[in-house]
Amino acid sequence: MLCIPKCIPEMKATIDVILYTLRVLSNGEAPLVIRLTKDKKRKYIRIGISLNPIFWDKLKNKPKSNCPNKEYIENIITEKLSKYQKQILEFQSIGKEYSLTQLKERKQLPCLEFTDSHLNIIAKNYYNDRNKKNVETKQINKLIRSIYY
């Protein structure tokens, strides 16, 4: 007889910043990337900064003390890490299962889902009442796009 556990523990997602030395740029620098790991799967997200490998501490995963613009780089790293940690906490607080692609591509917050559904209903009703697009429909579309981007 096969015994199936009632509750399978959820794998915790980990977030790290690493120097991605597999792709070294032509000037000898390597990009800094955020590594998202969950269920033994990894996604890499570039944060827009490249750094010479001699200024990166591989053991601590942070810039060395002699790195130029160290404070600026650390501020950007903490900002990006907190963004993804906040998203993970939001998913966990509402008890929603998530994947790494959802974390990577997530643009809206859960509180905006309610607003999004209402705006879509308003837009559909407005399109049904009016057959042609006019300035007001363009404003509604602009409002919907501004929420996501």
Topology:
Elements: E1 14-19, E2 30-38, E3 41-51, E4 56-57, E5 62-63, H1 70-94, H2 100-105, H3 111-129, H4 135-148
Antiparallel strand pairs: 1-2, 2-3, 4-5
Helix pairs in contact: 3-4
Number of domains: 2
Rg, Cα atoms, Å: 22 Å
How much helicity do the residues have? 40-55%
Cα distance spanning the termini: 52 Å
**Sheet with most strands: strand arrangement:** 1-2-3
Oligomeric state: single chain
Query: Which spans of ≥5 residues are poorly predicted at pLDDT below 50?
Result: 107-111
Instruction: Name the shape in a single word.
Output: elongated
Q: What is the N-to-C order of secondary-structure elements (H for helix, E for strand)?
A: EEEEEHHHH
Mean pLDDT equals 75
Quantity of strands, as a count: 5
Describe the biggest sheet? Answer: 3 strands, antiparallel
Beta strand %: 15-25%
Q: Give the helix/strand class.
A: alpha+beta
Structure description:
The protein is of the alpha+beta class. It has two domains: 14-105, no CATH class; 111-148. It is 43% helix and 20% strand. The protein contains four helices and five strands; from the N terminus they run E-E-E-E-E-H-H-H-H. It has helices spanning 70-94, 100-105, 111-129, 135-148; strands at residues 14-19, 30-38, 41-51, 56-57, 62-63. The strands form two sheets. A three-stranded antiparallel sheet has the order 1-2-3. Strands 4-5 form a two-stranded antiparallel sheet. Helix 3 (111-129) runs antiparallel to helix 4 (135-148). The protein is elongated and about 60 Å long. It starts with 13 loop residues before the first strand and ends with a helix.
